[in-house]
Amino acid sequence: MSPNDSAIGTALDRDTVRSTSKLLIGALAIVGVLAVVTLLPGVDRLVPFAPVTFAAVATAVVALAVAGILLYAAPKFALLTRLALGRRGADAESDTRSDRIVENAGGVVHWLVVFGAVLVAYRGLAGVAVPVLNGAAWAYDAAFLFVALVPVVFLVARLTVTVDPLAELVADRVAGEASGSEASDADEPTPADDDG
């Protein structure tokens, strides 16, 4: 890696970390503001001509904002994961395997954040949607079930393709390289070779 590549990598790391942490801190600040707003007098009253409270409406708005921030930040969290895991040194043989593991780990983080955004939206909008839907609240649950299945399917796919390379990497680290042990076994004479 040339010094220029290192400088670009360092700048990318710093910018990515800064923007991702800014999004995360912003989301936490919004949640904190919501906590304060729910303490205001009268927020537990019903909105005129609606079966929901002011607090439920505020919670729904904040939930949508936080879910949007999480969806926007998901690729950044994936990139940070790839950068953090990609820094670990690896030998030439396990380089491809390590790259696959790092790439899949980034994908797992991405889909976990997307799944978290879906859960935040589901919990936050429930206070408004369930009273409005009245007897059809099951439709709200069913809609979010189908939406939540998308990141779960991608998460399972990423985990599935990570199992083999990760198991090989662990075996190499714990028991030694496969090619090295096979070569040493081939060099040792067998009892049948001594007889003949």
Description:
Residues 180-184 have low confidence and may be disordered. This protein folds into 2 domains: 1-38; 45-175, no CATH class. Helix 2 packs antiparallel against helix 3 (95-133) and helix 3 (95-133) packs antiparallel against helix 4 (137-175). The longest helix has 39 residues, at 95-133. It has 6 helices and no strands. It is elongated, with a radius of gyration of 26 Å. The chain is mainly α and 196 residues long. The protein has helices at residues 3-37, 54-86, 95-133, 137-175, 178-187, 191-195. The chain crosses the membrane at residues 23-43, 49-73, 107-125, 137-157.
Would you spell out the secondary-structure blueprint of this structure?
Blueprint: H1 3-37, H2 54-86, H3 95-133, H4 137-175, H5 178-187, H6 191-195
Q: Which short descriptors sum up this protein?
A:
6 helices; transmembrane helix; 0% strand; 196 residues
Write a concise synopsis of the structure shown.
By secondary structure, the protein is mostly helical. It has 6 helices and no strands.
